[in-house]
Structure formats: structure tokens, C-alpha cells
Amino acid sequence: MLSEWIEALLARSSLTGFYVLIITFPLAIVQGILGIFPFTILIVLNISAMGIVNGLLTSWISGIIVANIVFYCGRSFFSDWFNRKIKRKESRYEKWQKYFELYGIWTLILLRTLPIPNNVVSLMASVSSIKPFAYFISSVVGNLSQIWLYGIISSSIIMPKQDSKLLIEMYIAFCLSLIIVFVRGQFLQRNKGDRTKESL
């Protein structure tokens, strides 16, 4: 019903091109805070109005801005409330909090890619020890991964005649690059830890 309401709102407004952001960006903020509807709806609307490249680009930028708004609001105003909420569901979130401490931004990048509500990811990060700049980097890369993946899926539905082979190949290359960087970073960190132990 909510998806139909959003689509009806867009149809009545008669907004096209970049003007559609007048509706989709405020809705992205609502989605980022409350998570009451999937972000994919907004991606689809942006792609429909602006084309696949501009639609994905504006969705990515919107996702980054909203993720950081929610993060700073969570850290400044809602950390006590969210900590209490986590304690009530400790078994569900405890492992991810441990991963935050172990792998930092890599956990956030993975969570952004998985079908997990964005507001939960941002709020969980806000009560962790992650530094703001590291979170910003994770939101840039993580939202890129998420938008790219959802864009591939939604474009095949909206534009079935569009050849998305290049988009898929580039996304696979992007994911492989992230995996290589992660493995290399973990390897160097482990070697550094071993050398530190030996010096002691």
C-alpha cells in the first residue's frame, strides 16, 4: 500500500527528470530514519525518471547523505534509546557489534549490501566505536555496492531491453576489488601483529 501511495504521489506531481528528487530525497530521509518502506522503491523511481545512470548516481548520493544524517543523529540524540533497544534483542545484534569492533568499515560495507534496513545499520554504527570519517567512507562504498546491486535488479525489470551485461561485469569487478583489498589489509594487519609480539 505504501509503495502504491508513493507511486501515486509521483504520478500526481507530474515531476520528471531531476525534479523527482523534490519527492524522493525527503522520502529517503524518512526511509533512512524509520525504515518503513524499502529503499529500492526510491531507486526504481529515480531510474524511471532520470534514466539508469543518473538514477543510480542520485540514489547513491542521497543514500550517503541520509546514512550520515542518521548516524550523527543516532550518536548525538538516540544512542541511549538504541542501546536499550539492542539490549532487548541482544542475541540478534551482538554478533554484528563484535564484527564492528573486529572489522570496522568492512562490516558496514557488507551490511549495506545485504537486505538489511539502512536505518538499523546506521543506528548500530552510531552506538559502536567507529570513527566518523571511517563511517563516512563505509557509507560511500557500502551505498555504492547496494545501489549498484539494486540498480542491476531494478533496471532489468524497468528496462528489459536494456543490456545490463556491462553493469553486471563492472559490479563483479568492483566486488572482487573490495575482497582483494580486505584480504590484503587483514594479511598486513596480522603480520604487523606477529612482528609486534616477536619484538616483545
UniProtKB/TrEMBL annotation:
Keyword ATP-binding: no
Cell compartments where the protein resides: Cell membrane
Major localization listed first in the record, in broad terms: membrane
Membrane topology: Multi-pass membrane protein
Domain of life: Bacteria
TM stretches of this protein: 18-45, 57-78, 99-121, 133-154, 166-187
Entry keyword set: Cell membrane, Membrane, Transmembrane, Transmembrane helix
Any Pfam family: VTT_dom
Domain VTT: 37-152
Family: Belongs to the TVP38/TMEM64 family.
Protein name as annotated: TVP38/TMEM64 family membrane protein
Organism (species): Cohnella silvisoli
